[in-house]
Amino acid sequence: MKLETLDKDGTYHIYNRGINGEPIFLSEENKKYFLKLMDKYINEEIDILAYCLMDNHFHFLLNIVSEGDIATQILSNLFNAYAKAFNKANNRTGSLFEKHFKRIRISDEDYLRQVVVYIHLNPKHHFGIDFTSFRYSSFNAILSDKDTKVNRSEVLELFGDKENYLYVHQFKNDIMNEQLTLE
After folding, report:
1. Cys staple from 148: which of 9, 68, 141, 152, with CB 3.0 to 4.6 Å?
2. What is the DSSP string of 64-82?
3. Could you please report the per-residue DSSP string of 19-49?
4. Nearest CA-CA partner of 119 in 149, 142, 100
5. How many CB atoms lie within 10 A of CB 81?
6. Is the overall model pTM greater than 0.85, yes or no?
């Protein structure tokens, strides 16, 4: 499978999961360490719009500011550093992730909004967890005034303001609740 290259000024949904669907995060400490590495590796070359760390997979929504090969190397370094640390801590060897990270280029603003919400609702979708209190997604970082690597101003501009950001997330959550009730 030929992977789409990352292009400068492109917006991408980046995701991957554990090999054979196995967990890549066994504890909260694993997720905290991954976020620490994210802070270390992702710099002004890449803008983070959204993220979510689930037990066996992760999602990023990124704007590529630099040349694509530089951004690809930054992401590879992040994922490799985490995999090496995870393997060492858990006395394991071999691949942690399924092949290369997957990427989907996003060029439509409506789809971009949908992906932000999709990423943030992942805890609800996979585990029935309240996405508003989930600690390992960017949902609350966008609402907060605390320092973050997430480009909150760009995300809020995409939704118009905080109120609409919240409204759209809650609306999609309500739809998911209805679908679960019907099943």
Report:
1. 141
2. E-S-HHHHHHHHHHHHHHH
3. GGG--S--SHHHHHHHHHHHHHH--TTEEEE
4. 142
5. 15
6. yes
The pair of structure tokens assigned to 160 is 């118009």
Domains annotated for the chain, with CATH where assigned, are 11-182 (3.30.70.1290)
- The rounded radius of gyration (Å) of the Cα atoms in the chain is 16
CB 22 within 8 A of CB 87: no
Per residue in 47-105, pLDDT tens?
A: 999 999 999 999 999 999 998 889 999 999 999 999 999 999 999 999 999 888 999 99
Determine contact, residues 48/64, Cβ cutoff 8 Å: no
d(CA 157, CA 57): 28
Q: Find where tokens 């989907």 sit.
A: 104
For 99-175, strand residue ranges (E) read 102-106
